[in-house]
Amino acid sequence: SLLAGGGLLHDHSGTVFPAAVTAAPILLAIVRDGPPDAGATALGLLDDALAFAACDRRTRVRTPYAEAVPLCCALADHVRHHTGPLAASGAEGRRLLADAARHWRFDVQEAVAEGDGVVAFGVLAGRFPGGTQPAEHHRAGRVTPLAVQVAPHYPLSDRSPDEACLRVDGARPDDVAPPAVLFSGRCGPGSADR
């Protein structure tokens, strides 16, 4: 109750604090290895934190892969690294995984010019919803999110879902060169429907 009442989140106001990102690996370890009641409580905290964070488009945290990541995307990244234990923890764990998948991240490994944009090859975490999507562009070491539009350049493969090729409209290769990271633009400030 202390964690839900102000330590990690404030459930009455729907606020989540950056400390939730730091606590996520500990909570996920409790889900995986703790007693069932403690695991259920930890799972509930994670579920609330991701849901509240998805409504907060301003709060950012520093991660190993980018300087100013939306809180929801940083939480989702931790959740995705614990697929097995969460899938085994029932409907609530599977729902948390599905919610986390919507907060996709694309780590650019190579970028080449094509037409009036760039084709970027890299690793996709989460589930790209298809079609043209708003994205936030980050460069490692710099806090410079840029609004861009991205779409799959080739159909995304079910055999190798983590490898992807995205088209970044209106960008130059230098803009998107590694170590660039793209996040769902639906999580950043000014994003329309969530």
What are the salient characteristics of this protein?
194 residues, alpha+beta, two-stranded antiparallel sheet, 6 helices, elongated
Total helical segments:
6
Question: Structural class of the secondary structure composition?
Answer: alpha+beta
Tell me the number of strands: 10
How many domains make up the coordinates?
2
Low-confidence region ranges: none
Helical percentage:
25-40%
Q: How is the main sheet built?
A: 6 strands, antiparallel, barrel
Q: What are the secondary-structure elements, in order, as H or E?
A: EEHHEEHHHEEEEEHE
Calculate the terminal CA-CA distance, rounded to whole Å: 28 Å
Tell me about this structure.
The two termini are 28 Å apart. The protein is 34% helix and 29% strand. The chain contains 6 helices and 10 strands; from the N terminus they run E-E-H-H-E-E-H-H-H-E-E-E-E-E-H-E. It folds into 2 domains: 9-101, no CATH class; 105-187. The protein has helices spanning 19-33, 36-55, 71-80, 83-87, 91-101, 173-176; strands at 9-10, 15-16, 60-61, 69-70, 105-114, 117-125, 133-139, 142-152, 163-169, 180-184.
